[in-house]
Amino acid sequence: MPDNIKQLTREILHDPVTVQIDRTLPAKTVSHVLYPVQPHLKTNLLEEVLYQNETNSVLVFTRTKHRAERVAKQLSKIGYRVASLQGNLSQTRRQAALTAFRKGSVKILVATDIAARGIDVLSISHVINYDMPDTTDDYIHRIGRTGRINKFGKALTFVTKADASRIRALEHLLKGPIKRSVIEGFDYAKPSPDKANHTSQTRENPSSQTREDHSSQTREIKTSKPWGNHSSQKPRRRFSRPPKNGKQKVRS
Fold first, then answer.
1. Which of 85, 102, 217, 220 would be 111's cystine partner, CB 3.0–4.6 Å?
2. Residue-wise pLDDT tens digits, 112-159
3. Do the domain assignments include residue 16?
4. Where are the alpha helices (H) located in 62-184, listed in sequence order?
5. Does 152 reside within a domain?
6. pTM for the structure as a whole
7. Please, what is the Cα angle at 194 between 87 and 82, to 5 degrees?
8. Is the pLDDT of residue 11 over 80?
9. Helical H segments across 78-236, by residue range
């Protein structure tokens, strides 16, 4: 039982009785692989994983409904037959997405945990955790959709540095380390759009240090002591007269 449900039962129930059964482990027909990646590169990595793997039906899990919709739209743009299953959809649209996925007219279904409950499709070859689940119970629940009826399935999980504790808990449950995979040729060092825009603006605009240096030189011109022995004598200009093109040259 997830910790938040346990907390809820303690708050609203009086002396609740708990019946605990052995935890169900993932089927042995399912292989597990972790893909370390930066958060902003997950969609790019998903496209690469789908391109390099031979798949039948793919179930992709995201943590939020907005992310599920965004990822589905991105995959649709590059030609995949994809649908999303998330809380903002009407019951009619949810059922239509499930039916299309079950019949095979949609090959990729991007879903959240809550919306995906009750999915019963036997032909799912891959479960991809776009976002790592919060608990090991959620992980087992997700990947239980593949590797069914003695068929082999694959559970692929994208992980970031923030998932370190979840990885340890999962490896403890599976009683061993999980394979890490890196795709050759994938640009793992690509900066996020925010950093790229910041770098571009820095190149286009003078740095603050350059502006400070220029201001310092200007103040030095105005406050330097007069040249020569007479205090009334005006200081010589450090810059020559601006040429016709309006640019100033510094004397050597």
1. 85
2. 988 777 788 888 999 999 999 999 999 999 999 998 887 899 999 999
3. no
4. 65-77, 91-103, 113-116, 136-143, 164-174
5. yes
6. 0.71
7. 35
8. no
9. 91-103, 113-116, 136-143, 164-174, 193-204, 208-223
Residue with tokens 């571009």: 200
Would 166 be classed as within a structural domain?
A: yes
Q: Which helix (H) or strand (E) holds 35?
A: strand 30-36
190 within a domain of the structure (yes/no): no
Among 18-32, 121-135, 161-175, 202-216, name the one with the lowest average pLDDT.
202-216
Residue 116, token pair as written in the block:
């995906």
Q: What's the CA gap between 126 and 30, in Å, rounded?
A: 9
Mean pLDDT value across residues 187-216: 64
Total domains, the chain: 1
Instruction: Tell me how far apart the alpha carbons of residues 108 and 23 are, in angstroms, rounded to a whole number.
Output: 29
Tokens 């059964």 found at: 21
Q: Which two tokens stand for residue 151?
A: 């068929």
CATH number reported for the structural domain that contains residue 68 in this entry: 3.40.50.300
Which DSSP state fits 239? Answer: B
SS3 of residue 223 by DSSP: helix
Average pLDDT over residues 200-229: 49
